[in-house]
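Example record for the data management plan.
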Amino acid sequence: MKVIYIGEFYYWKSKTAMSSVYQIDESNTFKRTNWGLIQVALQRGEEVHIRPANEKELKQMDKHLKALQ
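Corresponding structural encoding:
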């Protein structure tokens, strides 16, 4: 499981419509996830790789946030 951390700002600013963590799937698209699902993956023995979002990814999240407002 590959995950990026975008921060709590997006979670609160979007009134919880966005998450602070997103899974990156095989086609490099973002899928909302949460800390509970990350914990379940670890309990199942899956590897979880979490990294901070890069500038390009944060710009995409900014666009998504603006679309929600």
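Summary line stored alongside the record: Residues 55-68 form the longest helix (14 residues).
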